[in-house]
Write the structure tokens for this entry.
Amino acid sequence: MTDTSRHIPPTVYPSGLTLEELAALFPEEPLYRAKQIFKWISKGIESFDSMTNIPQPLRERLSERFDGHPISSNIEKQLVDEDGSLKLQIRLRDGAAVECVLLEDIEGRKTACLSSQVGCPMGCAFCKTGTLGFLRNLGADEILEQFHLLRRLRGFISNVVFMGMGEPLLNLENVRRAIALLSNHEGIGMSTRKITISTSGIVPGILDLAAHGPIVRLAVSLTSANPELRTHLMPVNKTWPLETLKSALLEYQRVTRDRITLEVVLIDTMNTSEHDAIALAEWIAPLKVQVNLIAWNPIEGMAFKTPSTAQVKQFAEILDHNGIVTIPRMNRGRGVMGACGQLGDTLKAQE
Ligand code: SF4
């Protein structure tokens, strides 16, 4: 009988395996071998043959086990913005696709903006990804593979934000595993202080993170402190309204003692008035936050308007006067549709 097992793709690729799980694959090998393999995998190598300190027979077994490739995802498209931002369209092993972005600030710090789901079920009205629908969660291996592919092209990455496609707190177990792998000192060794989870406001996920960790930086897309307007722009507000969200953020802050980032997408004539800014400042009052103001990034087919620089400035000044740290965010990646809310323009709606 022919052994066909090697032709069945594994369900988890090595980027998603912990050191202990790698060791368990080869129980007869000493632990230091698993550590060596884990280090190689954490470098995002293209071929098992790169593992120069691993004996050839073991490299061959790895290759057979993982269908010949350490990484199962492929870069389908690369787009580079004038500001240097890099957007990748990545084809996953089942044929689905996601996008991820590498943003570089003026000090040269590189941040990988990773996707956690194929599409997104949240339906935020101002976001391209929200129009695609939802197909499935990404595995931790697929999340790490985005990181590896970006790093191959751009070198050392200092920060990770789960701000790409999808709602990370609806895929918390895989995101948690991805963070554990990113921060493992035997491998990539990124501090959890350099990792941000950005949520639309999934209250059980925030409380779960507060109770069970990991303690990472939390960003919440708030956009409006007006309940009706927030529900209109972000349907999540129907399930977890503003007051419930605030209680969860206070709990997160009690546990972490850390400042939370609130993201406010400013849309001309919708949420840019003085009244909107004051309502936001009042809502924020008990929280210790930094507000990132993001002028809505244009998306074809959406009828919203981007506010002027003066509108953003005036909004920022009102928050400032109320003692709230406010940062008007640069729209890095906009030229390749890689800025906030724009991911998914190269992809089709999920079926
Ligand atoms: S803003 Fe985030 S949570 Fe909302 S639809 Fe877009 S990807 Fe999903």
Q: What stands out?
A: Residues 8-65 form a domain with the DNA polymerase; domain 1 fold (CATH 1.10.150). Residues 18 and 181 are 7 Å apart (CA to CA). The chain is about 35% helix and 20% strand. The two ends are 39 Å apart (CA to CA).
